[in-house]
Design goal:
A: alpha/beta; Rossmann fold; six-stranded mixed β-sheet; four-stranded antiparallel β-sheet; 8 helices; 38% helix; globular; B: alpha+beta; 3 domains; six-stranded mixed barrel; binds adenosine-5'-diphosphate; binds magnesium ion
Chain lengths: 244, 809
């Protein structure tokens, strides 16, 4: 498998009113194409900071970041925007749909930032994405007319409409009740089965179990990085092997 | 297509907040409208070349005396000849003379603006006659038979559009003249002429220092500027003056455009100040709209953050912001054009009333294509200016933070200071401007309503100018006016007739006088007084107040002692407190060994001219016309009803006395009175519009700042309220911010308003304590506007439920 993302010695320091916050300290992480990764850890440990660096929303103070083998540590704002638009899909805890745009327009919005997609192609892509999240019947609605779960499904549609190589989700079920949360998680499962690379921040262990791999962060450092499910199995296997 | 996507969205946002949109569009319309109007006005009256081929090269020579340029002044004949012979700056250089001439031989006798010119004038304007020919060198020879080229209006009106007009004979001031050509409609060169005759200058006849003064004009050579021509003319005149120092009177010649020459050179700086002022208003409008949009971009920080996360290129983000600016400014521009068009229509109607004669033909201000382009350009500039603050925020803002933990990008300290300063400035400006405007309006209204001291209603007035050729003695002229007076008295409905050189409210000549027994200090200039000639009975008809002595009678004629009646203002000025005024003597200072005139009566002060300070209290001297025999008089007929109805009868009566003497400028005395103040009333309207714009600006400026500040504090306010602060406490806290800006603005603006207000009252000559209430009412009104602009966003916050405000992102 090829490495989609390679982080080497990533550090992030925030400077606010002369106080230095070391949000990330020496992070090393590789994510392969097609992987489904969960990131968890206590509040304030740096999960969101890590995700925004992965999503090129923010730059690391130090370290090296390769995306698809290209070094993206030092590229300029507009190039970052270009990559973000083409390669990355975001899903936020608070949905972040634009309230004065219809469902359709919200999903179309990132596609309008592309120069190589025609209007008809765009509409087809919007249609496909909304069909995937089962929201094709609500295209002309405004976000305020939808339930939280529906809004998050539209947000997922927006994230996948441009067929990005990486989907980043920051506590996507944080604002949802369990039924709706399960729906969104199932949606991510499907996307993953269709080949998407997903990187999801969550502190819900149940959600984390759905991923293939769980990265645990504490105080800006990776403290554990294990495959899910198999982890328990493998621990057992190891112990039997050891016992044997 | 993506443009459509963004445009649609921008439109939707603007429609969603109609009050915001209306406010911003209104502010832009104010700023742009004033600018466009002012630009058009100034361009059309001052800078646009005349509408002739090579119009931009046409200049007229103004006389300069000791550095002061008097517009339209005629130049010495010598200088005209010298420059024509020696200058290399001009393709053509000519002379003309302007007259108002009496025409007879058609239906009636009428006056027309007449130009005596060289044949060259028609080459100068390069306009072909509609019929016949223009005059040539032979026609212009001294002694040649009288010929004339007439204007289209004269042809249509005086000659009733006669088909056999060419060769038709008529009389100009009694001289037989033949029509040889008709100029096309709209040809009124140089200003409002309808009749052109050869000037017949005898170039070689006059010795140096002789010859008539002439109005000189010229066509600059291609590539030669007015400045270069002026430098060359100065050199020529210097040479001449060294050669003939005995004829040097310190006079110079300055080439001006026709428009500047008409308006006066001193008007240029005023116009420039006006332009700067409106540019300033436009700038304020832009910064207000910019501020409002900036407030909006703050409110929409999250939306921008989402767009950033979705990979929007910066150019698209900025474009999104600019769409809104563009839509607002374009709408503002459209309204501005409508407003300017309306203003121009009004101006076109009012401007000619500023002049006593006919307005020059170029005073027809038009909204032309260049103006639409100007508005379009201005709209683009304002779009950029208003969009720049929000756009900068987008380029520099940290939107990541907004997305992640919901903190809003707080307004930077400098941006906050700038907008606060702006609001203070706007408050000061609107107080100063609106107060001054209202003071002016009230003062002028008071001045207009002042008593002229005589009757200014129910009279029809006209002017009579007797041709000196036929009326060559005082006796003949007096005889004419006595006959006319009798004729006018016969008209049914007429209750009184006055014949006087000036009616009340008409400007009178202001002459230097000497008082008997008065010691004039060495370099002191003699005092001046209005001088008016009255036929017997005029005082009675005009209803002057007789304070002492008597009015004129038929016995005050050429064979009796020279007498005068003076105004109370004359007595107050020269003999204050003196009980024995009757019998004192006065004479003209500008006549050597002149006759003395004895005071036989004192009348109440009557205003001759505008009812403003200087004119209002001018001393006046009235002479008996029986002792003067003036050829140029005003007549007035009094009635109990609508004086306009007497028009026909008046013209008929004048015609019956002498068919060759026309009555002209026939108008009611009310029209005379209102013409006196039409100009200032127009200026007041402009000022009031300025004041209203300033108020809208101040209101919107405060509103923008407060919305901005309050939106930034929504979360904080939510917390306060969650902790138990009442709505009124929150509103009060927010209002405080508006109040201190209001306070500083008032402290700065009120003294300026006071200064201007007093200046204006001084100029207009009204001093009433009632006016001072304006200095309280207007700042109070501005305060109310400011408070309202603060209250609206403040109360909006309290309408949010506290928990919504807390989660407000
Ligand atoms: N823009 C910022 N400025 C200053 N400090 C920040 C900023 N963003 C995050 N932090 C700090 O960095 C640390 C990690 O934050 P975050 O990544 O949001 O944590 P998590 O998402 O794991 O709860 C916290 O201490 C937070 O206060
Ligand atoms: Mg977080």
């Amino acid at each position: 498998m090829t490495a989609l993302i390679e982080l080497k010695n990533i550090k992030k320091v925030f400077l606010t009113e002369e106080v230095e916050t070391h949000a990330l300290k020496d992070i090393n992480l590789t994510i392969n194409s097609g992987e489904y990764l969960a990131i968890s850890g206590p509040s304030g440990c740096g999960k969101s900071t890590l995700l925004s660096i992965l999503g090129l929303l923010d730059t690391a103070t130090q370290g090296n970041f390769r995306l698809n083998t290209h070094d993206v540590s030092d590229i300029d704002k507009n190039q970052r925007a270009f990559i973000r638009n083409k390669e990355i899909g975001f899903v936020f805890q608070s949905f972040n749909l634009i309230s004065d745009m219809t469902v359709e327009e919200n999903v179309e919005l990132p596609l309008t930032y592309r120069t190589d997609v025609s209007k008809s192609q765009r509409l087809q892509m919007v249609k496909d994405a909304l069909a995937k999240v089962d929201m094709a019947h609500r295209t002309k609605h405004f976000p305020s007319q939808l339930s939280g779960g529906q809004q998050q499904r539209v947000a997922v549609a927006r994230a996948i409409a441009g067929k990005p190589s990486l989907i980043l989700a920051d506590e996507p079920t944080g604002n949802l009740d369990s039924t709706n949360a399960d729906g969104v998680m199932a949606l991510l499962d499907t996307l993953h089965q269709d080949g998407a690379t997903i990187c999801m921040v969550t502190h819900d262990p149940r959600s984390a179990q759905r991923a293939q791999r769980l990265v645990e962060i504490f105080d800006g450092q990776v403290i554990a990085d294990n495959p899910v499910n198999r982890a328990a199995k493998e621990t057992a296997t190891h112990s039997t092997e050891a016992a044997a | 297509m993506k443009f459509w996507f963004d445009f649609k969205y921008a439109m939707r946002l603007l429609m969603k907040k109609p009050s915001f949109t209306a406010l911003t569009v209104g502010v832009m319309a104010c700023g742009l409208g004033l600018c466009v109007y002012m630009f058009t006005f100034i361009n059309n009256t001052m800078f646009k070349p005349l509408d002739f081929e090579n119009g931009e090269r046409m200049v007229v020579m103004d006389r300069e005396v000791n550095g002061v340029v008097s517009n339209g002044g005629q130049v010495k004949f010598d200088y005209y000849q010298d420059i024509k012979a020696q200058s290399t700056s001009f393709d053509m250089f000519g002379a003309m003379q302007n007259y108002t001439m009496t025409i007879s031989g058609g239906d009636t006798a009428v006056s027309y603006d007449t130009v005596a010119a060289e044949p060259m004038m028609f080459d100068f304007t390069k306009v072909q006659p509609l019929q016949g020919r223009v005059f040539n060198e032979t026609d212009d020879m001294p002694g040649a038979a009288g010929v004339a080229v007439i204007g289209y209006d004269m042809w249509q009106n005086y000659f009733a559009g006669s088909k056999e007009i060419l060769g038709h004979e008529f009389y100009i001031e009694g001289d037989k003249t033949q029509v040889i050509g008709v100029m096309p409609q709209g040809y009124l060169f140089p200003r409002s002429a309808q009749l052109w005759i050869p000037i017949k200058l005898e170039h070689t006849k006059y010795a140096r220092g002789g010859g008539p003064r002439v109005s000189a004009y010229g066509m600059l050579k291609e590539g030669v500027t007015r400045e270069q021509a002026n430098v060359e003319m100065k050199q020529i005149l210097n040479r001449i003056n060294t050669q003939f120092p005995e004829f040097n009177t310190g006079e110079g010649i300055v080439a001006s455009t026709y428009m500047v020459s008409m308006m006066g050179h001193s008007v240029i700086p005023i116009m420039i100040i006006m332009l700067v002022a409106v540019a300033f208003v436009l700038f304020l409008a832009c910064s207000n709209v910019g501020n409002l949009l900036y407030a909006r971009s703050n409110e929409r920080a999250k939306e921008t953050a989402i767009r950033v996360a979705l990979g929007a290129p910066q150019s698209r983000l900025v474009m999104q912001m600019l769409w809104e600016s563009l839509i607002i400014c374009t709408l503002g521009g459209v309204f501005a054009l409508l407003m300017a068009a309306y203003g121009i229509e009004v101006t076109n109607k009012i401007m000619p009333t500023f002049l006593s004669g006919r307005a020059p033909f170029w005073w027809n201000i038009q909204l032309d294509s260049s103006l639409v382009w100007f508005t379009f350009g201005l709209t683009l500039v304002t779009t950029l200016v208003t969009g720049i603050m929000p756009a900068r925020k987008i380029v520099n803002g940290d939107f990541n933070a907004v997305l992640r933990d919901g903190t809003r990008g707080a307004q930077s300290r400098t941006a906050k200071r700038v907008s606060q300063g702006l609001v203070i400035f706007e408050v000061a400006l609107s107080i100063a401007l609106l107060t001054a405007a209202i003071v002016m309006a009230v003062a002028v209204k008071m001045a207009i309503n002042t008593d002229y001291g005589a009757k200014t209603t129910n009279m029809l007035t006209a002017r009579i100018s007797l041709p000196l050729k036929t009326y060559d003695t005082d006796a003949k002229r007096i005889q004419y006016f006595e006959t006319l007076q009798t004729e006018l008295e016969q008209i049914t409905g007429v209750t009184g007739v006055a014949v006087a050189s000036r009616t009340p409210a008409q400007n009178a000549s202001y002459r230097a006088v000497l008082l008997e027994g008065m010691e004039l200090g060495k370099d002191a200039r003699p005092p001046r007084a209005n001088t008016i000639n009255m036929m017997p009975g005029a005082f009675e008809t005009f209803e002057f107040d007789l304070i002492q002595g008597r009015y004129f009678s038929a016995a005050d004629n050429a064979s009796s002692e020279n007498v005068i009646v003076v105004s109370q203002s004359f007595v107050d000025k020269h003999w204050p407190g003196d009980q024995n005024v009757l019998g004192k003597r006065v004479k003209w200072a500008d006549v050597e060994n002149g006759k003395w005139y004895r005071v036989i009566g004192v009348v109440g002060t009557v205003i001759h001219g505008q009812p403003f300070s200087d004119f209002k209290y001018r001393p006046s001297i009235y002479r008996s016309n029986l002792q003067v025999g003036s050829s140029y008089m005003s007549i007035a007929v009094k009635t109990s009803g609508d004086a306009n109805k007497l028009r026909k009868a008046l013209l008929k009566a004048v015609d019956s006395v002498d068919g060759n003497v026309p009555a002209f400028r026939v108008k009611t005395i009310e029209a005379v009175v209102s013409r006196n103040t039409a100009g200032i009333e127009f200026v007041i309207q402009l000022f009031l519009i300025f004041g209203a714009c300033a108020t809208i600006l101040a209101g919107s400026g405060i509103y923008a700042l407060m919305s901005n500040a309050i939106t930034n504090r929504t979360q904080e306010l939510g917390v306060r309220r969650a902790l138990g602060s009442t709505d009124s406490q929150v509103v009060k806290m927010l209002m405080k911010q508006g109040i201190w800006q209001l306070g500083i603005g008032t402290v700065l603006g009120l003294p300026v308003a006071f200064l201007f207000g007093n200046l204006i009252m001084g100029i207009i000559g009204v001093n009433s304590t009632a006016i001072y209430s304006v200095f309280v009412i207007i700042p109070g009104f501005i305060a109310a506007v400011v408070m309202l602009a603060t209250y609206i966003p403040a109360s909006r916050v309290t309408r949010l439920e506290p928990n919504v405000a807390l989660r407000y992102e």
